[in-house]
Amino acid sequence: MMQTPLTMTQMMERAEKYFPKKQVVSRTASGIQRFTYKQIAERTRRLADSLSKLGVTKGDRVGTLAWNHHRHLEAYFAIPCMGAVLHTVNIRLSPQHISYIINHAEDKVLLVDPDILPLLESCAAELKTVKAFIIMTDDKELPETILSPVYHYEKLLAEANPDYHYPEDLDENDPAGMCYTSATTGNPKGVVYSHRGIVLHSMALGLADSAAISEKDVALPVVPMFHANAWGMPFSAVWFGTSLVLPGPYFTPKLLAELIEQEKVTVTAGVPTIWLGLLKELDEGSYDLSSLRGVLCGGSAAPKGMIKAFEQRHNIPFMHAYGMTETSPLVVISTLKSYQEELDYEERLELRAKQGTLVPGLEIKILGKDGEVAWDGKEMGELCIKGPWIASEYYKDERTEEAFRDGWLHTGDVVTIDEEGFVKIVDRTKDLIKSGGEWISSVDLENALMAHDSVFEAAVVAVPHEQWQERPFACVVLKEAYKGKTTKEELLEFLTPQFAKWWIPDDILFLDEIPKTSVGKFLKMTLRDQVQKEALRKG
Ligand code: AMP
């Protein structure tokens, strides 16, 4: 067979050639804008030309700090197709982590949304490698900023060459994108995606037994484009000529419901927090969302009750899936086998609430204490993954050794697998809390608490939360002299300036001691049970 490179250049070229009339609907600060793929493809070439005029060359990293909109989509293609590397910066990280990852990735140019400027300005003094800032604004003039030099996205595009030619010598193993993911403690870790990985993952999203994304769909990725490439949806959509709806900044459940209704969205993707918000809106309002054929839900476990409510009250089918930043992200998805469709609804729901079966192209194994676990839905082990869209290392990071061993990615997720191969996530060994789809480091919170004069020991655990799936809860042992004196409020106030607001624990429980293992490690499982009881008691 021929060896033709699996590069991303073919994706936008296909959209332009075969689907020039298909639409990208983009919501920005000034409202809804509509573009055809013909226009998007030309604007993408213009952006690549502008970046090359600013000195971006092969292998350079270009960062984005942006919501889901058409300009971000153009960056998604212009940067990799010109041979550079698209670095999507997670704008929910703290300013310290943001400056760390921009410096660590050595971003040469940053593309930024106007409303994210203050965040970037707050860490501008720390940035060591950035040579230019491009502001993705709808306004004619640039906003006031301390950043320099700044460029106006639309003005750059207006002056650029619409016939820019992408280089033809890209290798499929060249880096195309990168994204940082939170570590148990300390700075985030970088994952680099190759052209080949992105192309193969995009194909996997199109398979009939996975998300089945096709030209006939209208796809709305709610999951941010700074999170594992919006789960790869924009890449598949462009390649397949699927209409795209990009919801922009600060959307509400109402706005999402209206967008789905007006644009006749057929498939959408996001974390459970988003769907719980939408469910409430649908229960209270009156919308026609009958166009929806599937809601892809992942990032945290999809609650069974939520899936049922969507399906039975609103006739909206759910697709539960699991993945990680390190896995592009799709790994397993809970589509039923033909003979399982004959089971009654509750049995099917039970299966579909699991994270699902393996997507073709990947391999998994589940390692228990004594080797691989039995496929009995009971024995637990750590999920390990390998395959062409699974990262093989963290970018320039010693922590690679912890997760990548013997050719497998060790996920830190504890799972069972049943007789039919359905994987169910039951626990997590990584000491992190996932709140509304974003990570909170319990270790960092513990260290900060233990730096307070009155604190002898502190442990932070996740408690289940209806809206956010998990929230941090702190357990604190005070030093003798401070017992009965230091208050919760004082400790929370102490944490506030050190972390993003949503990291601050919901509550603090004062204990006489923290339960520990024989080697002195916090027994977080026991603590979690204790805290959950306390949270229940308080209602
Ligand atoms: P991230 O890299 O931020 O996308 O987070 C990946 C992690 O989120 C996984 O390792 C799991 O711990 C968790 N996760 C992702 N999808 C699911 C899911 N469907 N159910 C439960 N946990 C999930």
Automatic annotation (TrEMBL):
<dbReference type="InterPro" id="IPR042099">
    <property type="entry name" value="ANL_N_sf"/>
</dbReference>
<keyword id="KW-0436">Ligase</keyword>
<comment type="similarity">
    <text>Belongs to the ATP-dependent AMP-binding enzyme family.</text>
</comment>
<dbReference type="Pfam" id="PF00501">
    <property type="entry name" value="AMP-binding"/>
</dbReference>
<dbReference type="GO" id="GO:0016874">
    <property type="term" value="F:ligase activity"/>
</dbReference>
<keyword id="KW-0443">Lipid metabolism</keyword>
<keyword id="KW-0276">Fatty acid metabolism</keyword>
<dbReference type="Pfam" id="PF13193">
    <property type="entry name" value="AMP-binding_C"/>
</dbReference>
<feature type="domain" description="AMP-binding enzyme C-terminal">
    <location>
        <begin position="445"/>
        <end position="521"/>
    </location>
</feature>
<dbReference type="InterPro" id="IPR000873">
    <property type="entry name" value="AMP-dep_synth/lig_dom"/>
</dbReference>
<protein>
    <submittedName>
        <fullName>AMP-dependent synthetase and ligase</fullName>
    </submittedName>
</protein>
<dbReference type="InterPro" id="IPR045851">
    <property type="entry name" value="AMP-bd_C_sf"/>
</dbReference>
<dbReference type="InterPro" id="IPR025110">
    <property type="entry name" value="AMP-bd_C"/>
</dbReference>
<dbReference type="GO" id="GO:0006631">
    <property type="term" value="P:fatty acid metabolic process"/>
</dbReference>
<feature type="domain" description="AMP-dependent synthetase/ligase">
    <location>
        <begin position="14"/>
        <end position="395"/>
    </location>
</feature>
